[in-house]
């Protein structure tokens, strides 16, 4: 039977930080990873660019975290955004700061971040076993005594008193995040809060989104309405897909939408294509364009206001003849154009699920984890870090920082 000081389940962002820190403290560390290589999900973050963290201060950072960002105060105090940037730069990964306080590797390659962390882990003595599946965390009811896993079809047991679960959530299951950690935690007595996909694309009732498939709108405003009440607004980029809506604005709004769908509420997204202009100023501009281009066909006039892919959809909704000259647009038609540009309404009837969700909401109950150490309050010697915990955040580097910080703290605590 193999023996080691610490077993870490999962070689993602939290797992590699936990491994690095615990090995730096002269512990013998073994990481068990079910996939063929570490950091599979990290490789696809930020569309392959890896949004490492955010420059926000702790007090602002925790407002982006659900259900209770205050749980992370000790983890952020111990290891925060400047610490992960320093660690990566020590490993040769230069970073750049972009709009919204988002940090990326200067190379724009997530692979550079994965390779740097993996190299650092091996330098400090961390051992990795890939293509291994953990069956069970072994305990005597009070404390950890080992881990049972399968490698090459053979069941093995590791003798250890310390286990850190860093197995991720259920989002992007193709990267190995299939919810294994929840089952392992439940087996030793932990409560698992209900799981939901969040930061996820939304499905619309209207089929005309498919006609605008691939169109990305820059600098628009989108409001989420639940039972006809505005609950949240976001400014930024939105993308149309064959099923409905995606893009940063929609992902941020999706958390509230997912929970509203669960409660069978009526949900709408209302898009303002011209947020820089109020109704009165937009009316003045449209009237000016009509007067200046009175002989132009309506379809061509709309090119002054909308991307090409959106024009047929708008003309169909507005029921305006695309071939008539602009000067024939009536006052009623002009009002309808303005309303459509300022309040483009889409009814939400679903979401795309865990396969396309950036993160998972729900997980190991925070009430059963010590925030100062990440140790279980149920079983001594068991620790949790990253997405397996009931913590999720908005886009912008917040989720990866949660993984880095909780992983480092767990590794330090063992």
What does this structure look like?
It is a single chain. With 414 residues, the chain is α+β, with helices and mostly antiparallel strands. It folds into 3 domains: 2-197 and 359-413, 3-Layer(bba) Sandwich (FAD/NAD(P)-binding domain), CATH 3.50.50; 202-269, no CATH class; 279-344, Helicase, Ruva Protein, domain 3. It is built from 12 helices and 22 strands. Strands 14-17-16-15-18-19 form a 6-stranded antiparallel β-barrel. The radius of gyration is 25 Å and the shape is elongated.
Estimated helix fraction? 25-40%
Largest β-sheet summary = 6 strands, antiparallel, barrel
Average predicted confidence as pLDDT: 96
* Principal-axes shape call: elongated
| CATH fold-level name of the largest domain | FAD/NAD(P)-binding domain
N-to-C CA distance: 22 Å
| Secondary structural class | alpha+beta
Q: Ranges with pLDDT <50 over ≥5 residues? A: none
CATH class of the largest domain: Alpha Beta
Can you tell me the CATH architecture of the largest domain?
3-Layer(bba) Sandwich
Into which percentage range does the β-strand content fall? 25-35%
- Structural domain tally: 3
> What is the strand arrangement across the widest sheet?
14-17-16-15-18-19
Number of helices: 12
Number of DSSP E strands: 22
Rg over CA atoms = 25 Å
